[in-house]
């Protein structure tokens, strides 16, 4: 070490001097307020994921159409296993509108607690769509509440589409700051009921250079979107029963999102480029990477698009072939990370099993390339 | 839900329109590059924590004093259980200087792997200071390598003090943007060997309105700083053997940091206001809060200052009494979160035990106030 005689005195000015010497080698560490950290963690105004955008848009539109007094008198109702439940309860409480939430009994405790933070009007149901809808019908009969479905409505889709509007603005301003002119080639979003993905597809429908890709869990047929779209002719699958760890993506694709996925616009032959799915182990490994490398605490559903980028051979081949055709080796890819509603206990439930040597070897592979392939997929 | 007839068509322009209606209710979701996420997670240039600042400053100063060629010929050596090991290996590799790292055999695998990413010259030792120093002496005898100690040197202290310089600049510019004029009242930093805390104390030594507080784990006497400073007369404790989960804070306070802690400047009667410690359960709960609420993946050492703010009654009373004296109920407090070098497996090791009802009740308390008390401690 440098002789202590050659060091500067331990006073404030010496720290300024030290900083000048090495500041170019270290990143500036941001000062985060609690709110900022929440925001960075991809939650919106305290709810999980991008669901808040759909819920706020639906509620503001209902206020325009029905008037706030009428809406306050009747209240709102929805069914959801988690993120939409919280999002609607938050949006409703913002305008002092009562919100009845029907949640499946098997919902994760953190999502129930998160919902209860905004409304006391929670009822529990069985987990099938039919069981949920029965309880919703009962609430409507009793109270006259107005239904805000979790994904199958244009207002939800347009609201969730605004996440893409923001990401596109930020992408373009980062390009402008860097003096770079490149195209956003691919946007990947998770696919459950299809609200976020169809909103994303709608936003990019006038941008022919950007492909929108859906990402699903394959476990127990959870890839209903992929299977339905690849069928000849494409056929929507209306019932899915999967207990995938990506619990935010267990629902079948809704009718209106499905229509978006199977249509095109004047500038784009198809709104949706395709859907790819990944098995549980790959979702786990992507969740691990986001936590351990990116240091962001997410729920497994949020890691599904990263798992597709890193591990899905069909997706990687599609990218490779397009890149070959274009004569490039580097593409800008954006992944929508949506959902941070989980707990350490849930994580232990998922990762706490004894893991065999093969899995650990597989991780070695992950660790060696994971951190560099998130944004640019080399050909 | 609003009648579908009243909704806008599913096209890009409708999303812009939707956004205008509710944008004031949701946070803008940032577009993060992988690098950005790393940076936000408090790591510096890939190393854990703020150790990189100390290491880069020490290495740049050595280059000035000895010349780069001589330093490349001789190499560098240090002993560290983790973050400083990685930091020095990174700084050395930036300048193509060989770095010998002596790590205790019980170091966590992620920290060993992180170090190995920058240097192959790793040797293992026992975990006491004496055992580590013996192996270091051997390396020096064999290679002529120059020692860069983990914390007990002015260059390390000044380098780590630059974290405070940045946080203070950002604090002031956030105040200016908000049109607010308030004083940063307290900065809390973790205390292990004392490099980061003494650097923090030095930086704020010419700012009499800002108190600097050290935070330690109390398990198995890990609060050597607190015990030593509260002794009459204050006496540095040179040996500590604790296996606290805050493994980055197991080392005793170094001699030079100790001198800083027990001295004052012309504008400040004492550099360090005090040291407070917290038991393992409180460190666990603070770690849980940062992960589940702030969605940031950290190692338990990083959560120690938050645990002090939330749970240490002595610290809270000190704040309360000062606030009473000042006639205020709200203070700006900054917590330095340092260290994200952990794995899901390590987390399972810490949280994976069966937890009894009392613990879970205690968490209820945490959950009900945790998210609002991080930055402002009400009286």
From TrEMBL, chains A, B:
Q: Which GO terms describe its biological process?
A: amino acid metabolic process
Ranges where the Tryptophan synthase beta chain-like PALP domain occurs: 46-312
A molecular function GO annotation: serine racemase activity
Q: What InterPro entries does this protein map onto?
A: Ser/Thr_deHydtase_PyrdxlP-BS, TrpB-like_PALP, TrpB-like_PALP_sf
Q: Which cofactor does it need?
A: Mg(2+); Ca(2+); pyridoxal 5'-phosphate; Mn(2+)
Keyword check for Nuclease: no
Keywords carried by this UniProt record: Lyase, Magnesium, Pyridoxal phosphate
Concerning Pfam families, the annotation shows: PALP
**Entries under PANTHER family matching the protein:** SERINE / THREONINE RACEMASE FAMILY MEMBER, SERINE RACEMASE
Q: Which family does it belong to?
A: Belongs to the serine/threonine dehydratase family.
Q: What is this protein identified as?
A: Tryptophan synthase beta chain-like PALP domain-containing protein
Give the organism the record lists. Kwoniella newhampshirensis
């Amino acid at each position: 070490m440098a002789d202590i005689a050659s060091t500067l005195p331990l006073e404030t000015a010496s720290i300024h001097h030290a900083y000048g010497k090495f500041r170019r080698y270290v990143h500036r560490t941001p000062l985060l307020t609690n709110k900022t950290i929440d925001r960075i963690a991809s939650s919106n105004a305290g709810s999980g994921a991008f669901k808040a955008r759909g819920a706020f848009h639906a509620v503001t539109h209902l206020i325009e159409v029905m008037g706030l007094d009428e809406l306050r008198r009747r209240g709102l109702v929805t069914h959801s296993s988690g993120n939409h439940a919280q999002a609607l309860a938050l949006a409703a409480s913002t305008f002092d509108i009562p919100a009845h939430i029907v949640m499946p009994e098997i919902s994760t405790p953190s999502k129930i607690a998160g919902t209860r933070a905004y409304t006391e009007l929670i009822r529990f149901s069985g987990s099938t769509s039919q069981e949920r809808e029965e309880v919703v019908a009962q609430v409507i009969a009793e109270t006259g509440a107005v239904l805000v479905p979790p994904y199958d409505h244009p207002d939800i889709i347009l609201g969730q589409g605004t996440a893409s509007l923001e990401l596109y603005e930020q992408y373009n301003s980062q390009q402008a700051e860097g003096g770079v002119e490149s195209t956003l080639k691919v946007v990947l979003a998770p696919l459950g009921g299809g609200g976020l993905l169809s909103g994303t597809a709608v936003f990019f429908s006038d941008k022919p250079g950007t492909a929108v890709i859906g990402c699903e869990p394959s476990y127990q047929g959870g890839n209903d979107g992929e299977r339905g779209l690849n069928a000849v002719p494409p056929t929507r699958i209306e019932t899915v029963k999967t207990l995938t760890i990506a619990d935010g993506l267990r629902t079948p694709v809704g009718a209106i999102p499905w229509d978006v996925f199977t249509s095109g616009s004047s500038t784009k032959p198809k709104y949706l480029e395709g859907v790819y799915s990944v098995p549980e182990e790959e979702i786990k490994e992507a969740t691990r990477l986001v936590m351990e490398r990116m240091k962001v605490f997410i729920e497994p559903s949020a890691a599904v698009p990263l798992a597709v980028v890193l591990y899905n051979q069909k997706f990687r081949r599609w990218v490779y072939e397009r890149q070959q055709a274009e004569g490039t080796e580097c593409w800008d890819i954006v992944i929508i990370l949506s959902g941070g509603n989980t707990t350490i206990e849930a994580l232990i439930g998922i990762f706490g099993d004894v893991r065999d040597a093969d899995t650990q070897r597989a991780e070695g592979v992950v660790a060696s390339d994971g951190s560099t392939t998130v944004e640019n997929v080399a050909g």
